[in-house]
Design brief:
With 413 residues, the chain is an alpha/beta fold. It folds into 2 domains: 2-216 and 395-412, Glycogen Phosphorylase B (Rossmann fold, 3-Layer(aba) Sandwich); 220-393, 3-Layer(aba) Sandwich (Rossmann fold), CATH 3.40.50.2000. Helices cover 36% and strands 15% of the residues. The protein has 13 helices and 13 strands. The protein has helices at 14-28, 53-70, 94-98, 114-121, 169-183, 193-201, 230-233, 256-268, 303-312, 327-334, 365-378, 383-394, 396-412, and strands at residues 2-6, 32-37, 47-49, 101-104, 127-131, 187-190, 209-212, 240-248, 273-280, 294-296, 315-318, 338-342, 358-360. The strands form 2 sheets. The protein has a 7-stranded parallel beta sheet. A 6-stranded parallel beta sheet has the order 10-9-8-11-12-13, with helices on both faces. The longest helix is centred in the first third of the chain and has 18 residues, at 53-70. The protein starts with a strand and ends with a helix.
Length: 413
């Protein structure tokens, strides 16, 4: 079986990392899997660049110029919006022509237009589209937040013209997606049950073929036993450790102020723990109000260091406003940590409330603090079981097997 996975990059960004990981897992399972990208960061022979430097840049600029023009010539929210108006003619690429199955992933920012997707689907081979965010079911946004326009037909988008135009780009792009889905056969994969439920509620995808297959995670790279000591990691001895990480910790979506408030509740109760943060921060004062002892390790690019940090830790926390399938919780659980999180997203696919972890009431720092207390109280119990639960659900091989079953079913049709 030949499968071509299409994604904006091979390793730059969350969707890229999990798509590359899936390609590797499929290859280990005997599938001839390759990856087509427009931003390449590896020298892997199984990864090819689509187009050339000129065509890639032209498509990127063309789409973003249309977004700026459609938003009263403002650059505000420019990279929060995708309209798929311009893209590369990937249906002509030999890896697409030779594939038995084409697996689309994150294909925005000038990689594929909706017209280009229609041309691939018209080639008569199964097209699977893995949704790493909400874009397939909305007009233009990647995460709808509190907006419910996608339940109807979009328009008055808060990201465009301050939401004051019913016939804005979100409405026109919604209509273009509607026509695409009506004309060709696409098979959508949601990476969490929460995302699948959003799809089934949406006006665009409620009647489409949507199944759930999680992202693949390298569970074996996060063992229960740390390979580096606390001293080597710069961590204090004899203290409970609460870990929070993100690519950018002070991104508003990550909810860092709520985490600070919850940790301060613990500090005021005399909690003898240390909060450990990793990831970039644009605002150097983002943690100034935190009263609980804490350490900021900055960005950690070394997997071995990250795995050892989790293996030494007791709890891994996430206060994100929404996450399709938060990888930090999976990584922490693989190393035995107790996860504490809000439930606005795919967290329930990872955490069994009051068993393997704690799902707090959304936005409530008091309940979140209670969750951390729960985690610290049971952190020494069942570390093996938490790790085994993650391996069963999210290991590379388990996820690859689910995709192979899906591909075979579609090919048999």
């Amino acid at each position: 079986m030949k499968v071509t996975l299409v994604n904006h990059s091979d390793t730059l960004g969350g969707a890229s990392v999990v798509t590359y990981r899936l390609m590797e897992a499929l290859c280990r399972a005997g599938v001839d899997a390759r990856m087509l990208v427009v931003r390449r960061a590896t020298a892997d022979s199984r990864v090819a660049l689509a187009g050339n430097a000129l065509t890639r840049k032209a498509a990127f600029i063309a789409e973003h110029l249309r977004i700026v023009a459609g938003n009263v010539f403002s650059r505000r929210n420019l990279f929060k919006i995708s309209i798929a108006s311009a893209g590369l003619p990937l249906h002509r690429h030999p890896w697409i022509k030779d594939a038995d199955v084409v697996a689309l992933n994150w294909v925005n920012q000038g990689m594929l237009s909706l017209r280009g997707i229609r041309r691939i689907a018209a080639m008569g081979k199964p097209v699977v589209w893995t949704m790493h965010d909400m874009w397939c079911m909305t007009g233009v946004c990647h995460h709808a937040g509190d907006c419910e326009g996608f339940l109807r037909d979009c328009g008055n988008c808060p990201l465009i013209k301050d939401g004051k135009d019913a016939r804005d780009m979100s409405r026109s792009t919604f209509r273009r997606k509607e026509r695409l889905y009506d004309r060709v056969s696409l098979h959508f994969v949601a990476v969490s049950h929460w995302l699948a439920s959003r799809a089934k509620d949406s006006a665009l995808l409620r009647d489409e073929d949507v199944c759930v297959i999680p992202n693949a995670f390298p569970v074996a790279e996060f063992p229960l036993t740390p390979s580096l000591s606390r001293a080597e990691l710069g961590l204090p001895e004899g203290k409970r450790l609460i870990v929070m990480g993100a690519a950018r910790l002070d991104d508003p979506i990550k909810g860092l102020p709520v985490a600070v408030e919850a940790l301060n509740i613990l500090a005021d109760k005399g909690c003898d723990a240390v909060a450990v943060f990793y990831g970039a921060m644009r605002d150097p004062a983002a943690l100034d109000g935190l009263r609980l002892p804490h350490i900021s390790l900055g960005t950690i690019s070394d997997r071995r260091r990250l795995a050892s940090l989790y293996a030494h830790a007791d709890a891994v926390i996430s206060t994100s406003q929404y996450e399709t399938l938060p990888g930090t919780l999976i990584e922490g659980m693989a190393a035995g940590c107790v996860p504490v999180t809000f439930g606005r997203g795919g967290q329930a696919d990872i955490v069994d409330h009051l068993d393997t972890g704690y799902i707090a009431r959304y936005g409530d720092p008091v309940d979140f603090a209670s969750g951390i207390e729960f985690a610290l109280g049971c952190a020494d119990e069942d570390r093996d079981r938490r790790s085994a639960t993650v391996a069963e659900r999210f290991s590379d091989d388990a996820v690859a097997s689910e995709y192979i079953d899906l591909f075979n079913r579609l090919l048999q049709k």
